[in-house]
Amino acid sequence: MHSLYPWQLADWEQLHGYLTQQRIPQALLISGQQGLGKQQLANQFAFSLLCESPQETGLSCGVCHSCLLLKADTHPDFVVIKPAETKKSISIDQIRVLLIQLSLKPQFDRYRVVIIHPADTLNNNSANAFLKCLEEPTERTTIILISDRPSKLPATIVSRCQKLAIIPPDKSTVLSWLKQQSLPGDPEVLNSLAQGSPLLAQEFANSGFVKLRGDCFKSWIAIAKQQVHPVAVAEEWLKIPEDPLLFWVTSWVIDLMKCAYQIAGNLYNPDLVNSLQEMAQRLDLIRLYKLYDLLLNNRQLLDTQINKQLMFEEMLIQWQELNRGKHYGRSTGTG
């Protein structure tokens, strides 16, 4: 309950400063890429605000009445608002219920804390209703918004929040932490795939994503060798979460560009360097850049109603055409 990840100490100092100076923000936006522990940090700040006897470090004591209620998930002044279903929005009805709650005084003598996570899932109606919470703050109430994509939040909401932007830790910190977790897989590869987010790397290791990514790379290579039809692969890829999948494919294309320019020291996929270097020597870079542009555009459209089957077919057919007439040796594979 009162623990922090090693890379969060500097960010906690900022939050601890709010506590020691008694300058508690009415609204705080914690942002940063997925897998950095933003939820953990927000919870620690909330628990400290609610704790009756915080430690010198600012962390909650874990044993007072409030802390015991938090452990039991029954504290009346701790409210968490999140989508009712995965990939759904926070509804206006949820915000209306929150407004009613905030119209009442906190039940205990310390603070009331509301966590909105992920805040970027507020739709237009719920965001407009939520704005009233920020425009008319209530007594001893702090609202913490958590977002992987703060750019999707309305400017009217962002402007009313104090901000804590979480940045990825340095590589040595991530690798040291990953090694301590005794995870399956190469920490270097996990770190690269997770783009420096330790908790995302841990999730990848424990969920079998590294093997899944290897299987996808084999299919990608098979398309390049004209051994399998892009439509068949697109159908298989529909079963895979599209966000990491599109990142994997994009990272392969970026690494191909780096290999073509002989910049192979900082690849997203160091375990695939031999295959990528062999392919990079044979590809038309102008056409490869066009595929890269398509991938970037597709990643921007993931939150829309785009037909995922057609999206995968288009990019895989373009990849097939890019490789038509090329001859790769047996070494081109997953190593």
Number of strands: 5
Radius of gyration: 24 Å
Kindly report the CATH topology of the largest domain. Rossmann fold
Number of domains: 2
Q: Major beta sheet, specifics?
A: 5 strands, parallel
Label the overall shape. Answer: elongated
User: Overall mean pLDDT score?
Assistant: 90
In angstroms, what separates the terminal alpha carbons? 42 Å
Q: How are the strands of the largest sheet arranged?
A: 2-3-4-1-5
What pattern of helices and strands is seen along the backbone? HEHHEHEHEHEHHHHHHHHH
Helix vs. strand class: alpha/beta
Approximate helicity band: 40-55%
CATH superfamily of the largest domain, called what?
P-loop containing nucleotide triphosphate hydrolases
Describe the structure.
This protein has about 325 residues and is of the alpha/beta class. The chain folds into 2 domains: about 5-165, Rossmann fold (3-Layer(aba) Sandwich); about 210-325, Zinc Finger, Delta Prime, domain 3 (Up-down Bundle), CATH 1.20.272. The chain contains 15 helices and 5 strands. Helix 4 runs parallel beside helix 5. The longest helix is centred in the last third of the chain and has 19 residues, at about 240-260. The two termini are about 40 Å apart.
